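Final report, results section. Input specification for complex C-07:
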Amino acid sequence: MSETILVSTRKGLFTLERTHGSWRIGAADFLGDNVSLALADPRDGRRYAALDHGHFGVKMHRTTKAGGWEEIATPAYPAKPEGYEELDMWGRPLPWSTVRVWALETGGADEPGTIWCGTIPGGLFRSRDSGNSWEMMRSLWDHPLRRKWMGGGADLPGLHSIIVDPRDSRRVFVAVSTGGIWFTEDGGETWAQRGEGMRADHVPPELTHAPIAQDVHCLVQCPSAPERFWVQHHNGIFVSSDEARTFREIREAGPSVFGFPVRVHPREPDTAWLVPEIKDEKRIPVGGKLVVTRTRDGGRTFETLSRGLPQEHAYDVVYRHALALDKTGNRLALGSTTGGLWVSEDQGDSWSLVSHTLPPVYAVRFA
Amino acid sequence: MPRVVFTPNIQRHVECPAMTVGGRTVREVLDNVFAANPRARSYVLDDQAGLRRHMTVFLDGELISDRIGLSDPVGETSTVYVFQSLSGG
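Structure output:
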């Protein structure tokens, strides 16, 4: 099991280590700075951190061999063509500029140094040299349907989920809030939309079932059953057994079907975890009780797991990257907007509090 | 030649000492600064080379008028102040 957890927060990157059976906060890097996401690359041991300096923009950092951090290249949008005009859903010019790093994933095991990066306002980038340089996926950005992407919770569209198929590194799935699911099978040369069967209640009826209109909050794939995908969506929970081509909806899942993260067991495609909240206009746990829901039968039934989690006046929101599952499928970690961090060693049956005084947690990841 | 002064807040991330550089517009002056200090560029300008949303540039005490093109003319003895605005953060 992984003994290290990277916790990205509003005020720094915290590295949790497990020693003598208990978790403690080890390194605290970039204190005071907004760390939107971090990544540990198992292929070479490097770690990456995406910082948002507000006034001074987004900056990427990478660990050095000496154990420190160095600033590296930040994914940058290409120059807007002369005279080109594109407005966002609010009628303002869409910024061709990295507003936030919202997804960071390694390429396949057969392509060392390849890193994928998803951003707000929707640009997808790839580095072939461990972040020394980035190439924008113009094939996706220039796709005519990309202009139909819209803001979800954020004002601008954001690409938040990237999945490199374990069978073939050229096959990549991404998900956008809002813009649905996109797929390439040729390493990004061409892209096609996937995701029939999802449903968006917050758009006009003619768009309700359109794949482009879907507000996917989080997309995951079961590595050992790669045809199986799970989606936590703005409208609920959806499952696909045909590589995200078609989805079926799960309408009951414990306290609520609304939430942000979803994780699937690495070897059991029917086992998944979610963190429910009331619903879109009330983004707090149901009844002030923070719980995790788990299904072991593909979504037919759910257990509500609460042991060790706050069950009174808890208003913790768990963002899409703030629920982590390690490679064994046994250990989970959960971080919240109110600075809580919990770890479970038994698939969510019970949770131990590591800290309740962290800054707001954006992302939690096993290293 | 015009003088360029940076906000103290930026120094925590990237060293930006005051400089005297050539240039007849804000764009030319900043281009010359960033030629000597390339890392500073993306802290001040966005991906389209416009001024970052929460950055401001004063020219001899007056806000510049062209935040995108940075075409405001700079005099031989002007001082260009690169500061952050009070919004955001």
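The interface with chain A takes residues 9-10, 13, 39, 42-44, 46-49, 52, 54-55, 84-85, 88-89 of chain B (CB under 8 Å). Chain B has a mean pLDDT of 90. This concludes the modelling results for the funded period.
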